[in-house]
User: Fold this.
Amino acid sequence: MDGSVTLDDVMMRFDDFTAIEPTRLTIESGEFFSFLGPSGCGKTTLLNIISGFLTPSEGQVRIGGEPMASVPVNRRPTAMIFQNLALFPLMSVYRNIEFGLEVRNVGRAERRRRADELLDLVALGGSGDKPISALSGGQKQRVAIARALAVEPRVLLLDEPLSALDLKLRQHMRTELKAIQRKTGITFIYITHDQGEALTMSDRVAVMSAGRIQQVADPETLYQRPATAFVAAFVGENNRLPGRVVASDGETTTLDVPGLGRLAGRTGQAQLAVGQSAALFVRPEHLRLDTTGDDTRLEGDVTSVSFEGAWRMLEVCLADGSTRLRVLLGQGAGPAANPVAGHRVELGYAPRDAVVLTDDAPADVDAETGEPLASRTGEGQHAASA
Amino acid sequence: MLHQLKGRFGAPVAMAIVGLVGIWLVVMVVLPQWQMIAYSFHPNLLPAEIGGPKDHWSLTNYATLFDNRIHLAIFFKTLWSSVLVTGLTLLVSYPIAYYLAKVATPGQAALCLLLLVIPFWINEILRTFSWFILLAFRGPLNELLLALGLIDRPIRFLSGDGGVLVGMVYAYILFMVFPLYNAIESLDGNQIRAARDLGAGSVRTHWRVVIPHAKPGIATGCIMTFMLAAGSYAVPALLGSPGSRWFTQIIYNWFFEGGDWNQGAAYAFLLLVLCIGFMSLVMRLFKVGLADIAR
Assistant:
């Protein structure tokens, strides 16, 4: 059972609005793959194209290698979990789960047996006769999962299914979804704007912005080695310092940041040229107060300290008077790390912990083919490490 | 209710409102109805005999229907034909309502609704009469079918029940489309998508998801259409043939040709009972309550 999903230069246009730029991507069979992006970035459109609710303007979708262009929604080997779950409110839990089997003319006894199996899988055994209205939010969630799994899809599509749940339940369901995915071995394609969900559950994540895939990578790579300024800013928290490139080689790039002088960071992209505008990104946890010899140093005044339990978050206004940095201090940060608002502090970071990327994310296209870089990363290479 | 009115408008205005509504109900609704019921249980008498020894309560007017085979046949035929009209109207209206509610863009829906409503700006008699012209032996429909070579000689559409059925379906379509539209419109589009996604074809999607959801709307539409059809006079009078007499025509005859109001009232009351019976049957069949229909 091959549950791989391939997008062959899929592109979607609505009148004169391009919802999806030409995209080439392969999602491996059995993978937990997420599309992460702000609302309106095209991720739901992409999901609808895979499920068959939308026909792409150009390109095609293949599932397990088979072209899906002429396969209607109800014949595709996919099942969708809708954002609002879309359970059938007039049917019992059993009837909901058995719906897809009934369509496939599975006999009554066999239907019930499979439904019971699935209810056990989602830890709802014995609730089959309940009406949908008698279930809690989390239980409805589980029924939706069971209903989708009942049709034995090769690919399960999940459209922000956890967004209606409260925080505790959401975090619990993350673990559970991941466990169900492991147990069933089905390809999960997960759509979310919540990076916590994407990072904790996924094998790989595609970060999307304005109809374009910015980067495809495993969660760690995404966090440690963002390929574009958008990814650096969108995934996790980051401090952004814009400036102009004064020197760049494969290893290190130095920026001239107005009011702050020269700052160095790892070269994040291949095509950084001297004189172009770029931004240095340094994460709050990489800024420290007890600086060491090789650190790039910055000076500023603490404007606020907020205690978050396991850590403290400082806001520091730098010497230029306008740039504000967020600094995360762990509990073991030492006696020097106990500043209060108004203190002048010296901050430092190791240049290898910061990254310089082309600012404002201009068209990230491959200079030779004119295709988005993302399509190459989708084949398994990593654009940012070039 | 009265309490709320008092709170909002003060006692005098509240009493006035309630009083006026009460008077309207009693004078315009209850008393005339009561008068008709009372008529129906009394024999038809000369004015001089009213209040005399012959003026007593009796069931003879009701018995007439069951003694008169032809009238009884027409009574049941009216029932059956009204059921048929209701079914046909539902069949025609469901696709229209579904299209309006779920398929059409707002612009298309508005245009479509306008096109549906415009003919209803014209008097029912005139609309019915235009069907009479359309369906006539030498009318445009026959001409068209002849010109297209689909038939060899004109068809008598207006003999038998065909004309009446067509006319009624057309006359009452809005009373079916609007309740259906309201019901289907409130269905979450994702339910339809989910059914499709789980493998259901369109027939099953409608049967299992859309129609169960639209049940209160279907019940409302059916009840309204049935009542209007059973109580219709103009359509059978204009489009009917001698063989397709409607029970309302008999009632009319008792009142205005036979001059026997008492007998007419009894027949009218029986028709009312029939309608109420049908309504409760439909409500039970569809498992909907009055509250669902009022929505």
